[in-house]
Amino acid sequence: MHLACLNLPDLFLTLWCGTIKGSTQSNPKNWECAIFADQDRWTSHGHHVACAMAYLPGFFDRAPRNIAEKVNSGYKAVEYLTWFYRYAPAMLRGSLPESYWLQLCKLVRGVLLLYGEEILPSELVESKQCLTAAVEDYERLYYARDLDRLHVVRPCLHNIWHGPDQIVLLGSLIGCTQVPMERLIGDLGSEIKQPSNPYANLSQRAFRRCQVNAVKAMMPEVDRARQKAGRIPPRSEVLGDGYFLLPRRDRYMTPISQAEAAVFYDYLDQHEPAACEGQTRETFSIRIRRWARLRLPNETVARSSWKEHDKPLNKLRMARCVKFCDESGNIEIGEVRYYCIIGETDSAVALISIFGRRDDLLYARSFKTVDLRQYRGMHNLKVIDIKAIRSIVGMVPDLPGGCAGMDPDLDHIHLHVNHFYFVVEKLGFEAKVLQRSAADLDMDVDE
């Protein structure tokens, strides 16, 4: 946890800001990598990070705050994790010199592979290659064989290089992360009620916690969290395989636009031809009852633009962009317009606005760390089976010039046609789901 979440991000942040201490022959603010020594650029980057918060789903826990303002005010490990490994490769590709940006992408790619719940042998080899190249490039670029910069070669760089080797010995590192222990320390520490004798009070609190856990293990029926996890949500529609449609929904069947009806015609013509008999794509009409939310098997809740458009960006944690598998087995990214049940067979489907194709050149050049796509809006609609949806992702605006033109208080559109967005997925989410936490994975605003 400390190595990937704190040590590495802190090292690179001090290098980019030119605040790293130890040089006597040169000023770190004059080094080529010190892109944030310019206060205006640092302020602009912090504003960009803050604006991206609204585009991350609620289950990302604490989304990164304005790093220019909050970096010295208790910036959390999970904030560093998202900022360094998800934001930095995309946000800094026009700011960092090319060679420094490529070194960052190699390091990020190597660490991302280590964060998987299941890791293939070929991925271990790729991770080792990326980390080896990243460490060598770091010594060539940042250290530059200069004795005055010897202090920038930190042990954390050598330690992360051993990550793939440790997986061979210990298994997936995500299974032995220190995050649960840190969370337990925080929980027990917040329960201390006797400041005059805190350690004895802490021992008693831990002892009581063990007693409660033992009772829950022996009598699962008293565990409210477990009962809540297995409960069917009220006013929901059970679809099977762990999928549930959740309110809100239309009270009555309502007509839809001709552009949307044409897409439904394409779907029904392929799956239920009898429903389209005697009609054409241009004249087809249908009445549906829209649903606003969908709970996935991993217990996260995907929303839809139908209801999210009611809120401005500053009141939203967007959760309507999903990763799904098309008929050919390809993975696509789309924005959910709404969910509904159609046809004689009551097929549960979602109307999706599919993002444009990935920029494969940038994806390859960034060592698979920057997945950039163009939003097409109504120009690329498609109806898909709900069970083709795999997960919820964040789609963060790609703003090389900063986000000075964005107004989170007034923007109800959120995603703008022909603008580019890069994909952000939560690191280590598999481990959190395995914990079966009773936390609300559907929250809107990061309090």
Polypeptide structure, described:
The structure is a single chain. Helices cover 38% and strands 15% of the residues. With 447 residues, the protein is an alpha+beta fold. The chain has a five-stranded antiparallel β-sheet. It has a four-stranded antiparallel β-sheet with strand order 1-2-5-6. The chain is globular, with a radius of gyration of 25 Å. The two termini are 24 Å apart.
Mind describing the biggest β-sheet? 5 strands, antiparallel
Mean pLDDT: 87
Percent of residues in beta strands?
Answer: 15-25%
Return the structural class: alpha+beta
**Helical content, roughly?**
25-40%
Shape: globular
What is the radius of gyration computed over CA atoms, rounded to a whole number of angstroms? Answer: 25 Å
How many DSSP helices? 15
How many β-strand runs? 14
Spatial strand arrangement across the major sheet: 11-9-8-7-12
Low-confidence stretches: 430-441, 443-447
Beginning-to-end CA distance, first to last residue: 24 Å
Order of helices and strands: HHHHHHHHHHHEEEHEEEHEEEHEEEEEH
Oligomer: single chain
